[in-house]
Amino acid sequence: MKKNESLRELLYQLADDNFIHAFRGSEWLGLVPHIEEDVAYSSISQDTMGHAYMFYQLLEDLGEGNLNQIAHGRKPEQFRNAIILEEKNGPGSYLEKPDYDWAFTVVRNLLYSHFKTIQLESLKQSSYEPLSIVSRKIQSEQYYHLMHWETWFTQLMLSTEVARTKMEDAIKRIWKDLGGLISLGNYGDEISANQYIDSEQKLETRFLESIEKVFKKVEFTIDENPGMLRGNGRNGEHTEDLKQAIETLSEVYLSDLEAASW
Amino acid sequence: MPSKTIALKKEIMDILQNVKDPEIKPISIVELGMVEDIEITENTIHVKLLPTFTGCPALDLIKENIKNEVKDALSSLDNKFHVDVKYCYHPPWTTKRISKEGRKKLKKFGIATPSPDHNPGDPWEIECPYCNSTNITMENIFGPAACRSILYCRQCRNPFEAMKPIA
């Protein structure tokens, strides 16, 4: 194994999760339920892109190459993000007939923000100091994201019957792939043995305990553990949706590699 | 440290007072608490900056403005220093770092700042920057920039912004 390989793997997971999640968020610009949400969600996506930037920066510092090239120049199978984060917001595209699913988005954002909070708490103790410093910085911003999505989640869960049904369906659907977010992939044992982050099992237990409290407030329970229906993104397994995301995200960058500054 | 270096450091800090927040012109990056350290080596001036919010699109602009401002000011002194600006995250930037002067200027601009004594999790007490009333409503925690929220004053009926507490 190359030196620091498990650290690099973890950093790719963190960077790619934030990168792809920020992109799916940005696709909602102008399409969300009301104008205040447009301000909020675009701000959250912008923060999240900033978080991806910091993790890519750590990879650059480890000699993985230029951070823009790392973000835009890799093939889908080299990405380490969780499959649930790459999934499209719904049928259609941003430019043509976007029939995006708000319930799915709110649930995905709530579960991701919740897990990210647990993750950051653990990363703050990371044996790799640059990672713990960056995580502390991200945490101060993430606090507002979690609060925002908990508000949406709670309000929609407790509103009309139609909303409740859509939200519950979304939770059950996302749950089937959520294990891919918690997973640390093939290098998981080395990652936690090196104390870069706590083990997958510990993270999962903490996540389930804390999400249970949120579910309890809206009288919802789910019995199964999060699954990995469509494979493990941490090991480079992905869906067609990731290909579309990377092509769109990187189109401008790849069209002019000589461009002087970004 | 030789007194010459100390004098130069102070001079650079004064120059950085001229580098303003690109969106809030009255306030400088020094007053915002973004300047963590200035280090002078043989031929380079290293400016260590703390970003407010990491996704802030103004960060690169601020970097360039610092380089230009310092180079311009020093060229009159016939100095041959290279200027290097780096963002770092340790210690993290917090709203406590905004200076007293900075707070006054933000208020005059229509932006409230969290109390310097604010701790994470505390209730967030905000005064209207125009009439000082606390009879306000939070319209949106997220605002036109990552660092700000949108509020409304029920007393003087003005919309205003507030810096989000970051601890």
Automatic annotation (TrEMBL), chain A:
<dbReference type="InterPro" id="IPR007814">
    <property type="entry name" value="PaaA_PaaC"/>
</dbReference>
<dbReference type="GO" id="GO:0097266">
    <property type="term" value="F:phenylacetyl-CoA 1,2-epoxidase activity"/>
</dbReference>
<protein>
    <submittedName>
        <fullName>Phenylacetate-CoA oxygenase subunit PaaC</fullName>
        <ecNumber>1.14.13.149</ecNumber>
    </submittedName>
</protein>
<dbReference type="InterPro" id="IPR052703">
    <property type="entry name" value="Aromatic_CoA_ox/epox"/>
</dbReference>
<dbReference type="InterPro" id="IPR011882">
    <property type="entry name" value="PaaC"/>
</dbReference>
<dbReference type="InterPro" id="IPR012347">
    <property type="entry name" value="Ferritin-like"/>
</dbReference>
<dbReference type="Pfam" id="PF05138">
    <property type="entry name" value="PaaA_PaaC"/>
</dbReference>
<keyword id="KW-0560">Oxidoreductase</keyword>
<dbReference type="InterPro" id="IPR009078">
    <property type="entry name" value="Ferritin-like_SF"/>
</dbReference>
From TrEMBL, chain B:
<dbReference type="Pfam" id="PF01883">
    <property type="entry name" value="FeS_assembly_P"/>
</dbReference>
<dbReference type="InterPro" id="IPR052339">
    <property type="entry name" value="Fe-S_Maturation_MIP18"/>
</dbReference>
<feature type="domain" description="PaaD zinc beta ribbon">
    <location>
        <begin position="114"/>
        <end position="164"/>
    </location>
</feature>
<protein>
    <submittedName>
        <fullName>Phenylacetate-CoA oxygenase subunit PaaJ</fullName>
    </submittedName>
</protein>
<dbReference type="Pfam" id="PF23451">
    <property type="entry name" value="Zn_ribbon_PaaD"/>
</dbReference>
<feature type="domain" description="MIP18 family-like">
    <location>
        <begin position="9"/>
        <end position="74"/>
    </location>
</feature>
<dbReference type="InterPro" id="IPR002744">
    <property type="entry name" value="MIP18-like"/>
</dbReference>
<dbReference type="InterPro" id="IPR011883">
    <property type="entry name" value="PaaD-like"/>
</dbReference>
<dbReference type="InterPro" id="IPR056572">
    <property type="entry name" value="Zn_ribbon_PaaD"/>
</dbReference>
<dbReference type="InterPro" id="IPR034904">
    <property type="entry name" value="FSCA_dom_sf"/>
</dbReference>
